[in-house]
Amino acid sequence: MRSARRRTFYIIFLSFLLSLLLFFLIDHVVYERLVVGPLRAELSALPGIDSVTVSGRGDSLRVIVTPEDDAPLAALYADVLETTTARLGAGAEKSIELLDTRTPLLEEVYEQLRFAIEEAVATGRFTRLTASVGEAAQAFGLDRHAIYIDAERIYLELETDRHRLLAVIPRHRGPTDPARS
Hints:
It is built from 4 helices and 7 strands, in the order H-E-E-H-E-H-H-E-E-E-E. By secondary structure, the chain is of the alpha/beta class.
Protein backbone atom coordinates (compact mmCIF):
# COMPACT_ATOMS: atom_id res chain seq x y z
CA MET A 1 0.00 0.00 0.00
CA ARG A 2 2.70 2.40 1.04
CA SER A 3 4.78 1.52 -2.02
CA ALA A 4 1.87 2.28 -4.35
CA ARG A 5 1.33 5.71 -2.75
CA ARG A 6 5.01 6.48 -2.98
CA ARG A 7 5.10 5.46 -6.64
CA THR A 8 2.01 7.57 -7.36
CA PHE A 9 3.63 10.54 -5.64
CA TYR A 10 6.82 10.15 -7.72
CA ILE A 11 4.84 9.82 -10.93
CA ILE A 12 2.86 12.98 -10.16
CA PHE A 13 5.99 14.84 -9.09
CA LEU A 14 7.96 13.81 -12.21
CA SER A 15 4.98 14.67 -14.41
CA PHE A 16 4.87 18.12 -12.84
CA LEU A 17 8.61 18.67 -13.36
CA LEU A 18 8.48 17.49 -16.97
CA SER A 19 5.45 19.70 -17.65
CA LEU A 20 7.21 22.69 -16.13
CA LEU A 21 10.35 22.01 -18.14
CA LEU A 22 8.32 21.60 -21.33
CA PHE A 23 6.45 24.85 -20.63
CA PHE A 24 9.68 26.85 -20.24
CA LEU A 25 11.22 25.22 -23.31
CA ILE A 26 8.20 26.04 -25.47
CA ASP A 27 8.06 29.57 -24.04
CA HIS A 28 11.72 30.13 -24.91
CA VAL A 29 11.33 28.82 -28.47
CA VAL A 30 8.18 30.84 -29.11
CA TYR A 31 9.74 34.04 -27.70
CA GLU A 32 12.86 33.51 -29.81
CA ARG A 33 10.82 33.01 -32.99
CA LEU A 34 8.15 35.66 -32.48
CA VAL A 35 10.09 38.48 -30.78
CA VAL A 36 13.87 38.16 -30.79
CA GLY A 37 14.33 36.65 -34.26
CA PRO A 38 12.20 39.20 -36.14
CA LEU A 39 13.72 42.10 -34.17
CA ARG A 40 17.22 40.88 -34.98
CA ALA A 41 16.30 40.55 -38.67
CA GLU A 42 14.73 44.03 -38.81
CA LEU A 43 17.72 45.64 -37.12
CA SER A 44 20.21 43.77 -39.33
CA ALA A 45 18.44 45.14 -42.40
CA LEU A 46 18.89 48.76 -41.30
CA PRO A 47 21.53 50.76 -43.19
CA GLY A 48 24.78 51.28 -41.31
CA ILE A 49 24.56 48.16 -39.13
CA ASP A 50 27.30 45.55 -39.32
CA SER A 51 25.91 43.10 -36.72
CA VAL A 52 23.24 42.85 -34.03
CA THR A 53 22.89 40.81 -30.85
CA VAL A 54 19.60 40.69 -28.95
CA SER A 55 19.42 39.18 -25.48
CA GLY A 56 17.15 39.32 -22.47
CA ARG A 57 13.58 38.39 -21.69
CA GLY A 58 10.18 39.94 -21.43
CA ASP A 59 10.14 43.65 -20.83
CA SER A 60 13.91 43.93 -20.37
CA LEU A 61 15.76 43.47 -23.63
CA ARG A 62 19.39 44.27 -24.43
CA VAL A 63 20.23 45.22 -28.01
CA ILE A 64 23.92 45.37 -28.93
CA VAL A 65 24.67 46.94 -32.30
CA THR A 66 27.98 47.01 -34.14
CA PRO A 67 27.77 49.93 -36.57
CA GLU A 68 29.61 50.07 -39.87
CA ASP A 69 32.65 52.35 -39.89
CA ASP A 70 31.03 55.18 -41.82
CA ALA A 71 27.56 54.98 -40.25
CA PRO A 72 26.20 58.33 -39.03
CA LEU A 73 25.74 57.83 -35.29
CA ALA A 74 22.64 59.98 -34.65
CA ALA A 75 20.65 58.56 -37.58
CA LEU A 76 21.71 54.99 -36.80
CA TYR A 77 20.73 55.29 -33.13
CA ALA A 78 17.37 56.85 -34.05
CA ASP A 79 16.64 54.00 -36.49
CA VAL A 80 17.56 51.34 -33.90
CA LEU A 81 15.45 53.02 -31.22
CA GLU A 82 12.46 53.42 -33.55
CA THR A 83 12.65 49.79 -34.70
CA THR A 84 12.94 48.34 -31.19
CA THR A 85 10.14 50.57 -29.89
CA ALA A 86 7.87 49.59 -32.80
CA ARG A 87 8.56 45.89 -32.23
CA LEU A 88 8.48 45.83 -28.40
CA GLY A 89 6.16 48.73 -27.57
CA ALA A 90 6.93 52.07 -25.95
CA GLY A 91 6.63 50.73 -22.39
CA ALA A 92 9.17 47.93 -22.78
CA GLU A 93 12.45 48.40 -20.96
CA LYS A 94 15.32 48.14 -23.40
CA SER A 95 18.97 49.03 -23.46
CA ILE A 96 20.73 49.86 -26.68
CA GLU A 97 24.50 49.53 -26.73
CA LEU A 98 26.78 50.49 -29.58
CA LEU A 99 29.92 48.37 -29.85
CA ASP A 100 32.93 50.38 -30.84
CA THR A 101 36.66 49.84 -31.06
CA ARG A 102 37.74 52.22 -28.31
CA THR A 103 41.32 52.37 -27.16
CA PRO A 104 42.80 53.62 -23.87
CA LEU A 105 43.61 56.92 -25.60
CA LEU A 106 40.01 57.39 -26.74
CA GLU A 107 38.79 56.45 -23.25
CA GLU A 108 41.10 59.08 -21.78
CA VAL A 109 39.77 61.76 -24.14
CA TYR A 110 36.21 60.76 -23.27
CA GLU A 111 36.95 60.96 -19.55
CA GLN A 112 38.47 64.41 -20.07
CA LEU A 113 35.24 65.48 -21.76
CA ARG A 114 32.88 64.06 -19.10
CA PHE A 115 32.83 67.27 -17.05
CA ALA A 116 32.06 69.41 -20.12
CA ILE A 117 29.33 66.96 -21.15
CA GLU A 118 27.73 66.92 -17.70
CA GLU A 119 27.95 70.70 -17.47
CA ALA A 120 26.26 71.09 -20.86
CA VAL A 121 23.49 68.67 -19.86
CA ALA A 122 22.95 70.52 -16.57
CA THR A 123 23.03 74.06 -17.96
CA GLY A 124 21.80 73.56 -21.52
CA ARG A 125 24.81 75.47 -22.90
CA PHE A 126 26.11 73.26 -25.68
CA THR A 127 28.26 75.80 -27.53
CA ARG A 128 31.06 75.39 -24.99
CA LEU A 129 30.78 71.59 -25.26
CA THR A 130 31.40 71.69 -28.99
CA ALA A 131 34.49 73.82 -28.44
CA SER A 132 35.72 71.50 -25.67
CA VAL A 133 35.40 68.45 -27.92
CA GLY A 134 37.37 70.20 -30.67
CA GLU A 135 40.09 71.30 -28.25
CA ALA A 136 40.42 67.82 -26.74
CA ALA A 137 40.55 66.19 -30.18
CA GLN A 138 43.32 68.55 -31.25
CA ALA A 139 45.26 68.18 -27.98
CA PHE A 140 45.23 64.37 -28.19
CA GLY A 141 45.85 64.26 -31.96
CA LEU A 142 42.61 62.53 -32.94
CA ASP A 143 41.99 61.89 -36.63
CA ARG A 144 38.32 62.77 -36.47
CA HIS A 145 35.71 63.90 -34.00
CA ALA A 146 32.03 64.72 -34.27
CA ILE A 147 29.31 65.78 -31.90
CA TYR A 148 25.61 65.88 -32.66
CA ILE A 149 22.97 67.23 -30.33
CA ASP A 150 19.23 66.76 -30.63
CA ALA A 151 16.35 67.34 -28.23
CA GLU A 152 16.92 64.03 -26.41
CA ARG A 153 20.59 63.06 -26.63
CA ILE A 154 24.19 64.02 -27.28
CA TYR A 155 26.04 61.82 -29.81
CA LEU A 156 29.83 61.81 -29.59
CA GLU A 157 32.26 60.17 -32.01
CA LEU A 158 36.02 60.14 -31.46
CA GLU A 159 38.34 58.43 -33.93
CA THR A 160 42.03 57.68 -34.24
CA ASP A 161 44.03 55.03 -36.13
CA ARG A 162 40.90 53.20 -37.34
CA HIS A 163 39.59 52.96 -33.77
CA ARG A 164 36.35 54.61 -32.79
CA LEU A 165 34.62 55.57 -29.57
CA LEU A 166 30.86 56.06 -29.78
CA ALA A 167 28.87 57.58 -26.93
CA VAL A 168 25.19 58.39 -26.66
CA ILE A 169 24.43 60.54 -23.64
CA PRO A 170 20.84 61.33 -22.62
CA ARG A 171 20.14 65.04 -22.16
CA HIS A 172 17.41 64.32 -19.63
CA ARG A 173 18.41 61.71 -17.08
CA GLY A 174 15.82 59.10 -16.37
CA PRO A 175 15.34 55.37 -15.98
CA THR A 176 13.56 55.02 -19.32
CA ASP A 177 16.33 56.20 -21.64
CA PRO A 178 17.82 53.17 -23.42
CA ALA A 179 21.20 54.79 -24.14
CA ARG A 180 24.19 53.01 -22.63
CA SER A 181 27.68 54.44 -23.19
